[in-house]
Write a structure and sequence with these properties.
The complex is a heterodimer of chains A (about 280) and B (about 170). By secondary structure, chain A is mostly helical. Chain A has 10 helices and no strands. Chain A has one domain. Helix content of chain A is about 70%, strand content about 0%. Chain B is an alpha/beta fold and about 170 residues long. Chain B has a 5-stranded parallel β-sheet with strand order 2-1-3-5-7. Chain B has a two-stranded antiparallel ribbon with strand order 4-6. The longest helix of chain B is centred in the C-terminal third of the chain and has 23 residues. Classes of the chains: A mainly alpha (about 280), B alpha/beta (about 170).
Chain lengths: ~280, ~170
């Protein structure tokens, strides 16, 4: 497919799919807690409402940083689905988060600062595993281009089981699910107020929500790479993984940041780096 | 689009747009809950609304705990001299459009504590209140009813905001 068309399809379809996934997530979470839950389009209603609200900001710079967060998240996703270089995708992805952290640091709110620090810790916990995933996929495919990886005949996951498990582990950070929802959580109503999103309101918060939807689709794209051109297996795997994430979210309580960081680095080292080491010996 | 210039059609389109905007506001009200010297009875009832039995999340209602994200300020208990400023601060941090729901008789009028030396009276002595939910403690059903009524006021305020009427704080 033409890379520009693919990028365009991503930009349009990603929020729609993201909203459906997030809505289903909230319904399943509610059912697990014995509740009925909101309608499936609830994330869309929330975002739409936030655009209607008045925006309050002590410093205007935070709007700019959050806008950059959204733009770089879209850029990284568009590059990914256009079949671009996976390393560039990861760099743009990290840069997007750096902008978000800068946005959190703009205000003088201590809650936002704690949230920003935790956002940094999450970034540190996640980045090594994402890089290792890219290296592992390169070893299997012999190319850093996503376009080549998606057309890979056979299943890269057979050679990269450790990398996939490690990636599922850090997906919990990225989806902001318990036990690793340190910076900002859907369920923490009174703890650290609202973490990294404390100081954002109106359309700035809506842009953050939108970026999270794009981020979700990019992360699911990484899962796709593990299954090459086998689309049916990929969809089944994504459904199973998301269900597992929701289950873990409802079964566990939040851990301290030390435990989050050390466990994620341990998993990265044991499963991710171990997998790559074994693969390089083969 | 040809008929857009006609007054009735413009009126119709405006109503249609308003209905769409109203629906979105109505479908996603986020609340912030503050206890201004309540006996905790009304607070327990507010939190009971979030439990599986009443499950207000099915209307899209979320308890945020952050004034900058909230649309509805749910306040319980009579305001005392110490937390007057806190209540006003939370109210002022909330972005427009916003509504205030006073839960319980203490929040409505000060209740049995009205004459106490440290109690200012109801919440209305500090910030403008839109919906009063009396009761000691207020039942979860009446709290949900009060919040649903607040949604109507929220819509009106939104329309006022669109028309350029700035709300007096």
């Amino acid at each position: 497919m033409n890379p520009f068309i693919a990028a365009g399809i991503f930009i349009i379809l990603a929020p729609i799919i993201g909203i459906l996934i997030a809505g289903t997530d909230r319904i399943i979470t509610a059912r697990m807690q014995g509740r009925v839950g909101p309608p499936i389009l609830q994330p869309w209603y929330d975002i739409r409402k936030l655009f209607e609200k008045r925006q309050v900001a002590v410093w205007g710079a935070q709007n700019f940083f959050i806008f950059c967060y959204l733009i770089f998240m879209i850029f990284s996703g568009a590059l990914f689905y256009a079949g671009g270089d996976i390393l560039l995708v990861i760099f743009a992805f990290t840069l997007a988060h750096v902008f978000m952290i800068l946005g959190c640091y703009v205000s003088f709110s201590p809650y936002a600062h704690v949230g920003a620090e935790r956002e940094l810790i999450q970034l540190m916990a996640v980045e090594p595993m994402i890089i290792i995933t890219a290296i592992g996929l390169y070893q299997v495919n012999g190319s850093f281009y996503v376009g080549d990886m998606l057309n890979h005949p056979g299943l890269p996951v057979v050679l990269l089981p450790g990398a996939l498990l490690g990636f599922i582990f850090i997906l919990t950070f990225k989806l902001r699910k318990s036990p690793f929802d340190l910076a900002s959580s859907h369920h923490a109503h009174q703890e650290l107020v609202k973490g990294s999103t404390t100081e954002f309101s109106g359309y700035t918060l809506a842009m953050i929500e939108l970026s999270h939807l794009y981020e979700l689709i990019v992360m699911l794209g990484f899962v796709w790479l593990f299954f090459g051109d086998n689309l049916i297996l990929c969809v089944i795997a994504i459904i199973v993984i998301l269900f597992l994430e929701i289950l873990i979210d409802n079964c566990t309580s939040r851990v301290r940041w030390q435990d989050a960081l050390s466990s994620s680095w341990f998993v990265t080292l044991a499963l991710g780096a171990g997998n790559i080491f074994v693969l390089s010996l083969m | 689009m040809v008929c857009y210039t006609r007054p009735w059609c413009r009126e119709y389109l405006r109503t249609l747009i308003n209905v769409i905007i109203m629906t979105y506001l109505q479908k996603s009200p986020w609340i912030i809950h503050y206890d201004a010297s309540s006996c905790n009875g009304c607070d327990i009832e507010v939190l009971a609304c979030l439990t599986p039995l009443y499950d207000v999340e099915r209307f899209g209602i979320i308890n945020t705990g952050n004034p900058k994200h909230a649309d509805i300020f749910v306040i319980t208990g009579g305001v005392n001299e110490l937390n007057k400023e806190v209540v006003r601060n939370i109210y002022e941090q909330m972005p427009h459009p916003k509504v205030v729901v006073a839960i319980g008789i203490c929040a409505c009028s000060g209740g049995v504590f009205r004459e106490c030396y440290n109690i200012s009276g109801g919440v209305a002595t500090v910030i403008p209140v839109d919906v009063y939910v009396p009761g000691c403690a207020a039942r979860p059903e009446s709290i949900i009813d009060g919040i649903v009524q607040a949604l109507g006021i929220l819509e009106q305020k939104k329309l006022g905001m669109k028309a350029g009427v700035e709300e007096a704080v």
